[in-house]
Amino acid sequence: MNDEPGRQGDASDPSLHARLYQQAARLAKLGAWECELATERLTWTETVCEIFDLPLGTPLKRATIVDLYTDESRRDMELMRAEAIRTGESRTLDVRIRTWRGELR
After folding, report:
1. Tell me, what's the pLDDT at 7?
2. Fewer CB atoms < 10 Å away: N or C end of the chain?
3. DSSP 11
4. Could you report the per-residue pLDDT of 3-44, keeping only the tens digit for each?
5. Cα-flanking dihedrals φ and ψ of residue 31, to 5°?
6. Integer Cα distance of 80 and 91 in angstroms
7. End-to-end CA distance of the chain
8. What is the DSSP string of 14-72?
9. Which is nearest to 96 in space by CA: 58, 61, 52, 62?
């Protein structure tokens, strides 16, 4: 990959991978997120921010985001999260949220 004439990109550079991933995710309208369990630190792609109508750059605090889930979805998500923590296995769940602007999705 050439970003600049005569300069090769370093394929092992994590910042290059992050930038390329963000570009690909944006083009594909792909949303991905991660929650670090020990700290509850959230990392979202731009598309996930769009799903929640959250302005880019808004600090992501798990407690605030969880409040956007409908009561039933919040309960289901917390049960599934606890099971994933207990077993270490991935899970899939469809949920209903109220976006930052109040739209039901």
Report:
1. 47
2. N
3. T
4. 554 445 566 787 887 788 778 877 887 788 888 888 999 999
5. -105, 135
6. 7
7. 39
8. HHHHHHHHHHHHHHHT---EEEETTTTEEEE-HHHHHHTTPPTT---BHHHHHTTB-HH
9. 52
